[in-house]
Design brief:
This protein is of the alpha/beta class. It has helices at 38-52, 62-67, 69-77, 97-115, 135-142, 199-204, 207-219, 244-251, 254-267, 273-279, and strands at residues 6-13, 57-60, 81-84, 121-122, 147-148, 169-172, 178-181, 186-189, 192-195, 225-228, 269-271, 283-284, 289-290.
Length: 299
Amino acid sequence: MKEPIQNALTIDVEDYFQVAALAEVVRYDDWSSMEYRVEANTDRILALFERAGVKATFFTLGWVAERSPELVKRIAAQGHEVASHGYSHQLIYNQTPDVFKEEARRSKVILEDILGAPVTGYRAASYSITNQSRWALDILAEQGFTWDSSIFPVHHDRYGMPGTPRWPHRLTTDKGYELAEFPLSTFKLPGYTLPIAGGGYFRLFPYWFSRYGLGSINRQGRPFVFYLHPWEVDPGQPRLDVKWFSRFRHYNNLDVCEQRLARLLSDFRFTTMSQVLESEGVLDPSSNTLGSSSVAGMA
């Protein structure tokens, strides 16, 4: 019997007040005064993963890592992979290249100093590497990152690069660098590409639909990537007064998300992002450098 496909399980380690949906009422300068809940919520997820016997990739915000270095160490000590989620969770296309470069460098240094090991993977805040900010891919390569999971091949009001490859691949940046890319997973419908990779979609869709959509990717012989945030298993978090759509995006079904996540862990097989990229032939398992599979250009 053929072995079940292993999928990439990922957590974006950020707190509830750092998300784009709440930026209308919480400024970056306010962060230090907000109730800090990310550490306890991440530990809650770590305990769930330990019970399920799965490993994951934790894309950790530099701002969080500075305040919770022991959390970063606990993540790594339990056998999980640590990657960068940038420093300040700002949308990249609202930053200048110089600011983004400094934040990418800063987050990498913080994590590597804590771990005493290289950090080579990256995920942008709110998947904000788009056609408008594809220059960020060059900067990631120049800063020593070898793989990325920031591109969402969909139409969306905040992110998306529709028409780009849906599967793990190697891409060529505008300056000619190569990066391994694991795009966020999608479900093909007639005439429409639907996001199915997790997060708010996992809370919005009924569980059976998420399971079917993700399963359809495995039935095609492909791995999917699933993501979630620690604040999504925290229905007791403070409720902020935001516009109705942002409120819906952020608070919808928080009370059932952890239960759904536990079901997902039993319904599919999971491992770290790097291990999936290695199995797909886009990373060399001996050095976490680019593998030998074909390159998918960004044009």
